[in-house]
Description:
Helix content: 40-55%
Order of helices and strands: EEHHHHHHHHHEEHH
Distance between the termini: 37 Å
CATH topology of the largest domain: Rhomboid-like fold
CATH class of the largest domain: Mainly Alpha
Strand content: under 5%
Radius of gyration: 22 Å
Number of domains: 2
Shape: elongated
Number of helices: 11
Strand order of the largest sheet: 1-2
Amino acid sequence: MADNRCDFCDRYEMLPFNCKYCGGVFCSSHRLPEYHNCPGLKAMKQGNWKPPAQARKPQPGNQRRKKLRLPRVRLPGQGFYAYGIIALCVIMFILQFILPPALTNALVLSGPPQAEGPLSTIVYILTHAWTTITYMFLHANIMHIFFNMLMLFFFGPLLERQIGSVRFLGLYLGSGVLAGLVQVLIFPGAVIGASAAVFGVMGALAMLMPDLRIYLYFVPMKIIYAVILFAVLDLLLIPSGDQVAHAAHLVGLAAGLAYGYLIKKNKGTVQAYYRV
């Protein structure tokens, strides 16, 4: 059996793809030149591309490992964590209509009933630490969960395949926790929803793949421009009092951008065209 492993992520592929620009072998996730940062495509754009002398062909596993002897430093995800989060959010949304209100309220992130300043809020949250996680899996209504999960469905698996499942989960939960804490400390009140965590995912993806093209309300644009647009809107709407956690959105987005920047320093920019 041939060891058909992707040159970009080292994942085994039953039917690998050969890139006509660089001659490499890639999996279905990285078959396009834009997805594996193809040097041949870059050379073609610069006008000095030459066809590869010989494309690499899949070789028996033992033979290839003897030739390369490279450690596997990448642990790409398959999108399972992102899909798992979506499933958990849907399940929790259904349970919100079944469980007693007192139990559901115990999962909501909030400050004390009578806040006496940031210190009392911090103490209250420390005694209800689980709510910094559970609030992300609750939603106010069907439209709230629909748009959050729609964004996570398109952006989550794509980011998870780029940075790995563990990093993806850490980013999702970390940005959500940080955003929720800032929101409650600045604007006392209850907070629910995955929006901040989803914005963290979008921010990291915009940093890693700034040229990623998406459709925002049927308007094509680069994801980095969409992120800037969302940030400006949230910033302007903070004083509106519309019961939306705009500050949490901004913090989640900032956390995602920062995390994406740290990964980008070690990994490099990945450019792609992806329709949402």
